[in-house]
Amino acid sequence: MVKRRVLITCADRYMGPAIQKKFQNLHFEVIAAPSPMISEDQITNVIDAAGHIDVLVANFAYPPVTGELEQLRNDDWMTLFDELVHPLMYAVRATVPQMLERASGKIIAITSAAPLRGIPNNSAYCAARGAQNSFIKAVGL
Predict the structure, then answer these.
(1) Domain total in the chain
(2) What is the reported pLDDT for 52?
(3) Under DSSP, is residue 57 helix (H, G, I), strand (E, B) or coil?
(4) Minimal CB count within 10 Å: which of 49, 77, 91, 141?
(5) pLDDT one digit per residue (tens) for the chain, 141 residues
(6) DSSP annotation of 51
(7) Nearest-10 Cα torsion for 91, 95, 100, 102
(8) Which of 30, 33, 43 is nearest to 4 (CA)?
(9) Distances in whole angstroms, Cα of residue 117 to Cα of each of 95, 104, 113, 129
């Protein structure tokens, strides 16, 4: 019997360890990619090396940048998008072609409910997580 294969991004952060354990308990072959995973080349190389991926768990995380809007620096905003949003797009874009070719596969994006309810003094974090949520929903459609 061929094991199904799951690739978990940033498996050492956020929900990564718990997700890894769950898939191991379900008898998946787990490829646990360590963080950071932020460059397109790095992410593409990991996905290419993984080969056949049945499930992509896009687990990108970065701590919120807290503070009043007036204190929010441009580089803090960009860092959140560089850590959370862009890597998600790179990973999905690199994985989808093989899934479409097989007409099979799942993508699970570990995001947050923060953009749905908002968190005071965390506008950049909510915006980045909202971008993740919107992107993955649109790709799924």
Answers:
(1) 1
(2) 96
(3) strand
(4) 141
(5) 678 999 999 999 999 999 999 999 999 999 999 998 999 999 999 999 999 999 999 999 888 888 888 888 999 999 999 999 999 999 999 999 999 999 999 999 999 999 999 989 999 999 999 999 999 999 999
(6) -
(7) -160
(8) 30
(9) 30, 33, 7, 12
Question: Would you call 103 helix, strand, or coil by DSSP?
Answer: coil
Whole-angstrom distance, CA of residue 72 vs CA of residue 65:
8
Whole-angstrom Cα distance, residue 29 to residue 22?
A: 11
Domain that holds residue 121: 5-140
Contact 105, 99 (CB under 8 A): yes
Which residue is associated with the tokens 């993508």?
A: 107
The DSSP 8-state label assigned to residue 81 in this structure reads: I
